[in-house]
Design a protein that fits this description.
The two termini are 30 Å apart. α2 crosses α6. The strands form three sheets. Strands 2, 3, 4, 5, 6, 7 and 8 form a seven-stranded mixed beta sheet that branches. Strands 1-16-15-12-13 form a five-stranded mixed beta sheet, with no helix packed on it. Strands 9-10-11-14 form a four-stranded antiparallel beta sheet, with no helix packed on it. The protein has two domains: 91 residues, Immunoglobulin-like (Sandwich), CATH 2.60.40.3080; 168 residues, Flavodoxin domain (Rossmann fold), CATH 3.40.50.360. The longest helix has 16 residues. It has seven helices and 16 strands. With 268 residues, it is α/β, with parallel strands linked by helices. β15 and β16 form a beta hairpin.
Length: 268
């Protein structure tokens, strides 16, 4: 037993988990809220809603005079924090996520001001992450919102194309979202593929919900619980895990006299 514990201590130093997605959005008319609710149901992503610090603001009053003034202030001085309206504090650790989907309404050809505030303060923390963009608008094109996103997240790895959902399409957005997720290869982007190397051989291990996919030369694959119990063994390239309880396991890939072990998270 002591030998087993020592072995597990060594192999648990590496982890291969499915990439996590965060959806950040602002919604005034609730069109974006409807879109995000459907998007979350299709992806299981975490969601953060941005809210103005001052409650009860009527952006539609006086022909949307307030919203227009906020956008003008940002356009005039985009690099100054004082140009952006205050928002309520947001409690989220961006380090926990590999992909961020920004869902934004269009205001006067730009991204809604409260969402710009959040990205102005936190966009730098999204550097290197996959960034997806969804825009809701009545009619105008979305290039201005895309430009705002690139300006506010300068180090983001933007995914093309963005998804434009017109206000009239909101109630039927499910298929639009589904098609977009397929178009950008969302499953592949968040699959958690990890390459392991042993004795000069490379094996790609893709941990997904319900299975583990292995691509490369190997003799056998085994999965152990953290107590050291072998829960399955296979020599196939696709290993079914849907019968297992969600949790942390140790995967061992064998090739000849060589092996490599990795900690994996199974979600079913």
């Amino acid at each position: 037993m002591r030998k087993l514990i020592l072995t597990l201590t060594v192999v648990l130093t590496a982890i291969a988990v499915n990439a996590k997605t965060l959806i950040v959005y602002y919604s005034f008319t609730n069109n974006v809220h409807t879109v995000v609710t459907d998007l979350q149901s299709q992806t299981g992503a975490d969601v953060v809603r941005i809210e103005p610090a001052e409650e009860g603001l009527d952006y539609a009053a006086n022909n949307y005079a307030l919203g227009s003034a906020l956008i003008s202030a940002i356009r005039n001085h985009p690099g100054e924090a004082s140009s952006y309206p205050e928002i309520k504090p947001v409690d989220v650790n961006l380090d926990d996520y590999d992909m961020v989907i920004v869902a934004a309404p269009l205001w006067w050809s730009n991204m809604a001001a409260p969402l710009q505030t959040y990205l102005f303060h936190h966009g730098a923390q999204m550097s290197g992450k996959k960034i997806g963009l969804i825009v809701s608008s009545a009619s105008s094109g979305i290039s201005g919102v895309e430009s705002d996103a690139h300006r506010l997240i300068p180090g983001g790895d933007f995914i093309a194309p963005s998804l434009w959902i017109r206000s009239s399409q909101t109630s039927g957005c499910h298929s639009l979202i589904s098609n977009w997720l397929e178009q950008i290869g969302y499953k592949e982007l968040t699959s958690g593929v990890e390459s392991v190397v042993m004795s000069g051989l490379k094996v790609d291990m893709n941990v997904t919900s319900g299975g583990i996919h292995l691509n490369g030369n190997f003799d056998s694959f085994a999965l152990y619980s953290l107590s050291g119990t072998k829960v399955l063994e296979s020599s196939d390239n696709v290993v079914e895990t849907s019968a297992l309880a969600s949790g942390v396991y140790v995967a061992r890939i064998n090739s000849g006299s060589c092996f490599v072990s990795k900690k994996v998270v199974i979600t079913n």
